[in-house]
Amino acid sequence: MKQPLLDMRDIVKSFSGVRALNGVSITLGEGEVLSVCGENGSGKSTLMKVLSGVWPYGSYEGEIYFQGELIQASGIRDTEALGIVIIHQELALVQELSVMDNIFLGNEIGSFARLNDEAMHHRASELLGRVKLNIQPDMLVRELGVGQQQLVEIAKALNKNVKLLILDEPTSSLTSADIRILLDIVSELRDQGIACIYISHKLDEVLALSDWVAVIRDGDHIATKVAAELTQHDIIAMMVGRQLEELFPREDHEIGEVVLRVNNATAIQAGASRPQVDNVSFDLHRGEILGIAGLIGSGRTELMQCLYGCYDGQYQATVELDGQSKQIRTQRSALAAGIAMVPEDRKRHGIVPIMSVGRNITLSVLDNYKTNHFSSVFGGVDEDKEYQDIEEYIARLKVKTASPELAIKHLSGGNQQKAIIAKCLLTHPKILILDEPTRGIDVGAKYEIYKLMYSLVKEGMSIIMVSSELPEVIGISDRVLVMHEGKLKGEFDHQGLTQEIIMNCAIKEGA
């Protein structure tokens, strides 16, 4: 039997006595693609940190063999020297440096403190050609799109003579065109004998790309199976430990009168060739889930930012809420009007990473906990009431956290998203805007968020959901608006709606 390239045997990793990995074993051969699937918090990232040297030898139990040799890495440099390279979901490129400088950062060509720029430029051009990226090596990274930056990361890995490439959620922020390019390149690398471990919640990508699929649940290795013999439902059942009746648990609910009327919303960014939002008008009904679809750059997020008072350019809109005219120019005024928003980029705009889970949840309603003590000039904080609210909403949204005092950056993406939604719900909004509510989270957490959305609209709340996932838009929404280049191009009831109908509308030109 041929010796595997990678052999991880009975890996156990604990944090403060709690096991994150419970005897996980995986193997992988040269030129093979293994996808590792599991819910957020299942142990996938911990396993990859053990493999890549973030958690050094001696900090875990078990053994890792690479090309038949035991790895005793003290850090990432040791594993990279062996040809194991990890590309994280959060790209690690230096934005103000050139592409070439990023590719060679820490691995420069030269001697005696004199760099050989000509050799590095030639080598960088060669590597960029291998990843089908037609750009100049001296371009600044900040001038590139996210998809192009992802390819620069792969070129950087190839420069380290990679034998095993680990991709952690590589397509979560990419367009469909960029995704196709990336998947094609991974396939080409496989043909060149480079193995890949692929971590993604997008199961269609997993099945299209993988030779093997390994599933981890709550730190346990459930199974590793041949990808060609699996369906998406098979993988989901292994991930969550049960059959999900449907990916989108549509529930009957009553839709009432118009609660929000937006007229002539327009948003303009300085220097842009066209408005990001171009004279858009729409209504929202009580108890309705209104989906907003469209390609990236269509103006979906910008429209929501106008409605929430956080667009950073010039914008205007006539807004009526329950028949009353509202001037919404700031987030505070939006909250006061009864509008709350879960932003598209939760890490940048949704959480304060170093702050506790609890304090993130109460961040928008701190005034609720003020007390007025005669003995204090400044008053105080009713910590008992605040903690009571924190515990109530952690339980209501099933936020998995060891403690409300834990820094929120340590939570999985799905649990961070639940905490952000909890923060919004504490403001008791009439309208909840969800911009990409399930991006980068697993199917189990998605299912819980969908169930929560239906429970909220049954209580009379109205929801606007922006999503790039067309099955999600169709599966959850009552009505769908489609945008293209800042304009509203179509409005559809969910019944009989297909992805093809939405895409044809999303790409059509003209009025």
UniProtKB/TrEMBL annotation:
Its EC number is 3.6.3.17. Pfam families: ABC_tran (PF00005). PROSITE patterns: ABC_TRANSPORTER_1, ABC_TRANSPORTER_2. It is found in: Cell inner membrane; Cell membrane. SUPFAM superfamilies: P-loop containing nucleoside triphosphate hydrolases. PANTHER family: CARBOHYDRATE TRANSPORT ATP-BINDING PROTEIN MG119-RELATED, XYLOSE IMPORT ATP-BINDING PROTEIN XYLG. This is Xylose import ATP-binding protein XylG. The lineage of its organism: Bacteria, Pseudomonadati, Pseudomonadota, Gammaproteobacteria, Oceanospirillales.
